[in-house]
Structure formats: structure tokens, C-alpha cells
Amino acid sequence: MPANGAQTPPERRRGRGRTAALLMAPLALSFVVPLVGPLVSLASPVMARSLAPTVWPERRPQAWLGAAAFMAVWLPVLLRLFLPFGLGVFSLIIPSEHWWLLLPLCGPSTSITFVLPSVAALTVYAGGSVASVRRGQTVLWPLAALIGTYTYSVTILLLEATDLGGFIC
Asked: Beta strands of 97-148 (E only): which ranges?
């Protein structure tokens, strides 16, 4: 560290990486932990308000960024739960296979049905989040959450189509 106490660029990047991981953690938990994960993910707007200036110092993101990331994950489920017949043709393209994480009334029939979709969604979400921090573009964070949601749903559908997994109700 220099004599005047200023951080060198690698130290600053390392600190931004830790802060970014802390910022992304609530939504990451929502893909893994049933019932508790969605409640923890409610912290995203609050954490975005306080931590985002450290992660994206050149931008001034507000709480809307965390709210957008939260809605990217949970709005499709809420629409599917509360408007099951009102969506028409859009119900075919709205990912909602992760509804059981919000209301765990059913559960995966095999461990692969629990692990594989979560790992796929977290990989996509983490990759998009890292790209968001490295490129300095805040909009990539909610977009990564949305694409992670689609990845989770597509993985579940593929597992069901190949008879490798499903849900027990």
C-alpha cells in the first residue's frame, strides 16, 4: 500500500470483487434455498442502495437496480401463481419452474433435479454479475438474474423431458 494510504488498483479490484459477491448473494440464495431464499432476496434493493456505489463507482445506481434484479427472478413466478389463465400465450414463455422455491408445496424427486438447475442458474447469474462489475454496466446485473431464471426453468424442463427428474407433490 502506498505511503499516503491510497489503494493500488489490484487492491481496489479485490475489494470491489468482495463487495460485488456480497451484493449478489441474496439473489444467489434464492436459487438454492426454498422458502428462506426468496425472503433473503428481498434484501437486494437495500443492499444495492448501500453497496452499489462501491461496485460501480463510475455509475450512480439506486435501489431500483436491486429491485429490478429481484423482480427479474420473482415476477415471473408471481405472475404465474396469481394470473394462471390471464397470461394467454405469454404463459408459454414466462419461466416459472422455480415457483417451488417460493412455496415449497412440492419438491424435486431426485437430487439431480435439486442440484443441476441451481448450479446452472448460479453459473449464469454469477457470470453475468462478474461481467457487470468488470464492464461497469449496471444493467447487466438484473439481466443476469433474468437469464439465470430462464436457465433454471429450461434445465428443469430438460430434466423432466429426459425422465431424469421431476417433482413430487
From this structure: 107-108
Q: Is 92 exposed, middle or buried (0-12, 13-18, 19+ CB in 10 A)?
A: exposed
Nearest to 34 by CA among 88, 113, 89: 113
Q: d(Cα 87, Cα 134) in Å, to the nearest integer? A: 37
Residue written as grid cell 401463481: 81
* Integer Cα distance of 24 and 12 in angstroms: 18
Q: How far is CA 20 from CA 24, 36, 129, 133, 167, in A?
A: 6, 21, 8, 7, 34
Give 123-157 pLDDT, tens digit per residue: 998 888 888 888 878 888 889 888 988 898 888 88
Q: pLDDT of 106-115, one tens digit each?
A: 778 888 888 8
CB 159 within 8 A of CB 166: yes
Distance between first and last Cα of the chain: 57
pLDDT digits (tens, 9 = 90+) for 86-95: 556 566 666 6
Rounded Cα distance between 1 and 138, Å, is 29
The strand pairing partners of 158, in sequence order, are none
Question: What is the rounded distance in angstroms from the CA atom of residue 96 to the CA atom of residue 61?
Answer: 28
